[in-house]
Predict the structure.
Amino acid sequence: MVEQQTPKKSLTVSILSLSFLTVMAGAAVAPALGVIQEHFADSSQMLVQMIISIPAIFIVLTNLIFPRLCKHLGAKTLVLIGLLLYTVGGCAAGIFDQIWLVLLMRALVGIGVGIIMPLSTGLLAYYYQPDRQARLMGYSSAMNQLGGVIATLLAGILANLSWRASFLVYLMGLISIVLCLIFLPNDLITVKQETEKRPKTLDIWRNNYAYIIAMFLLMSTFFVYPANFALETVTDDIIPQQYIAIIMAMMDFIAFIGGLLFVRCKNLLGSRIKFLAPLLFFVGYLLLLFPGGWIGTLIGSALIGFANGAGIPFIISEASLKAGRAAAITVMPLISAALYLAQFLSPILLGAVTAVCGDSIAHLPYYFALVLAAIFCLWSIRIPNQEK
């Protein structure tokens, strides 16, 4: 095991660059989904929508075997494999005219992110002392959100050229490849002297289920917004269509600010920080419902974005502090799996609720999000605060 000396800034930048990419797994090409649908008009709408959702399933599956990969491969090797799958699979999806081959490439993107995601946070826990981890986790979340903003804007611009060009947004992975190739050590991120026996997945779950379920609830609550905001806003016929994308980009930027300000919020709120995200989600969705309109939409969107940006680093940093340097091979893969599983299941759960309630309730997705936020708030009572 390498001694925990103060890492160089080049290593910090290299690790944070991974966070810049992970949110792009499925959402990066979302602005191009309309033109992709036109090209694959002979394919079912469900198959086309899977271009966005299928990476999440393969991320979850890869996360489950990630600790075994760490047993045999060094950090740099794993990162470069993940980045190559991410970059090549992401770009290659625009080459094919068969929907199944496109989905295969998207699966490779999911496998790549399944490798990158635990390392993007786990390496921070491995190389940095606990007193620096919270701030770096906030930066990681901020980079995640900033990557989403830039990727969405670029994909939208590229989609105006061609649906194939929209997949070139994954070339941003080349930046991380160069940085990690030069600056990232190839350490085996195992901590053998801390335990005689590698912990089993069930044991890791038992020790960390509060954080894992919290991440699932956080992402389930948040994902109602990007999945439904445009459709729900159009039905009100108050905010013009051309402003919807701008408001959503603003939400992502506020999430970026939330990540940067996470440590200040933690210092200000202390142990009550655990309730910040669920309460902001609850108030944010309330404002989208009442009063709605411009004021409710703008303030509500901002609160939802800040909740997401500050909530993710809280859960990750608390779980990392508990797991110590072994976080990358223990709790991080399960937290990553929970995050992406929520992205995949959230629309399915909402669909089931809609099937039960019907179309008679206006803005049903927001009511669904309010229920999730309330459950998340109650669950947060079970989240222990780790001392540095």
